[in-house]
């Protein structure tokens, strides 16, 4: 089994993977990431020429991640987002990628039925899920009036876009969609380098292309292009899967209540907050997994799918072309949209003794 070293991204280099790929791994975006690049059919990653091409593609992905880290970070003073906050309400020049991401993010907000808002940083900064801090009702009531996408304004031109935040107390946080956007961007880089088969994992945002490589040693043998089997974590038992979905080309992203939470005073608080009151969303969905061609679609719709519940959530996803969903309830029930049924396998929850 492949072991990854998640060190400084600036020092990361590609190496031979256990599955005949070239692989690179590092820590960035406050998460662990790794990418596998595979030789084309009829080629071998052990060929020096092929290996150099794959390594160059992976190095380009690493450098692109560093670029996005400096552009989109909410904590780096030089980032587009930090400069916009520092200068609010004045406008600042931003990168075209930042403008594109914000524009697309606002679209997901509009389509989320009030469940997703890229200014939730206004409220989430009051919580501390590491130390178990619950904000006071007074602090939430003071923050909520500053919440809302209407405070975010894009301007300028396509060649020189600008961003302004008209309320200095509003916090723009693109963390809910940035990894999906970046994953799609990295896929384009790999394709531009002639890499036809690859796996991108940005801290759980998984994107694959080209299916699996041929593996005659596997039992049963795997033919080239066979779909990857991507596990969906069991929210009751995160060490095991609750379902497995077959994907040859596409992305899989899960939003789950189990990912970040703490218990205080006999009550459990999870990290997916309701824009209406700034408190953890009340939902009977324990996790919502979105499967789509574009990873940004998975990010953009997963939070809404979870918050809308086991009845409305699947119907919401069913109405979006090219997007599928798998829902696990707090009672361990699994539901899914119609287009994924023939690619989904369920795994029973193991009894707890």
From TrEMBL:
The GO terms this record gives for MF are: metal ion binding; transferase activity
Question: Know the name of this protein?
Answer: FAD:protein FMN transferase
What keywords are assigned to this protein?
A: FAD, Flavoprotein, Magnesium, Metal-binding, Transferase
Co-factor requirement: Mg(2+); Mn(2+)
Q: Which InterPro entries match?
A: ApbE (IPR024932), ApbE-like_sf (IPR003374)
Cross-referenced Gene3D superfamilies, in alphabetical order?
ApbE-like domains
Q: Where does Mg(2+) bind?
A: 176, 299, 303
Q: What is its EC number?
A: 2.7.1.180
Main EC class the enzyme belongs to:
transferase
This entry's comment on the bound cofactor is: Magnesium. Can also use manganese.
């Amino acid at each position: 089994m492949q072991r990854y070293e998640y060190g400084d991204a600036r020092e990361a280099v590609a190496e031979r993977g256990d599955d005949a790929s070239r692989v690179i791994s590092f820590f960035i975006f406050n998460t662990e990431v790794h990418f596998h690049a595979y030789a084309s059919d009829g080629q071998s990653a052990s060929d020096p020429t092929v290996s150099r091409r794959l390594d160059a593609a992976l190095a380009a992905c690493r450098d692109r991640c560093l670029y996005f880290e400096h552009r989109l970070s909410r904590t780096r003073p030089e980032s587009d987002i930090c400069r916009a906050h520092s200068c609010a309400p004045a406008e600042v020049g931003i990168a075209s990628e930042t403008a594109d991401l914000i524009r697309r993010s606002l679209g997901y907000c509009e389509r989320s039925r009030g469940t997703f808002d890229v200014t939730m940083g206004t409220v989430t900064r009051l919580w501390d899920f590491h130390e178990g801090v619950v904000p006071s009702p007074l602090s939430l009531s003071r923050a909520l009036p500053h919440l809302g996408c209407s405070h975010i304004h894009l301007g300028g031109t396509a060649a020189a876009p600008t961003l302004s935040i008209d309320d200095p107390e509003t916090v723009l946080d693109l963390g809910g969609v940035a990894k999906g956007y970046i994953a799609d961007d990295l896929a384009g880089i790999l394709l531009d380098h002639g890499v036809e088969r690859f796996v991108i994992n940005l801290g759980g945002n998984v994107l694959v292309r080209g299916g699996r490589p041929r593996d005659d040693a596997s039992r049963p043998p795997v033919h080239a292009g066979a779909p990857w089997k991507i596990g969906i974590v069991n929210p009751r038992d995160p060490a095991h899967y609750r379902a497995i979905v077959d994907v040859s080309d596409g992305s899989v992203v899960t939003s789950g209540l189990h990912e970040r939470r703490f218990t205080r005073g006999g009550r459990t608080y999870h990290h997916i907050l309701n824009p209406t009151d700034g408190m953890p969303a009340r939902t009977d969905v324990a996790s919502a997994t979105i499967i789509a061609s574009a990873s940004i679609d998975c990010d953009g719709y997963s939070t809404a799918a979870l918050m809308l519940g086991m009845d409305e959530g699947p119907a919401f996803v069913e109405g979006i072309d090219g997007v599928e969903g798998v829902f696990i309830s707090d009672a361990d029930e699994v539901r899914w949209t119609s287009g994924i049924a023939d690619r989904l396998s369920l795994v029973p929850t193991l009894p707890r003794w």
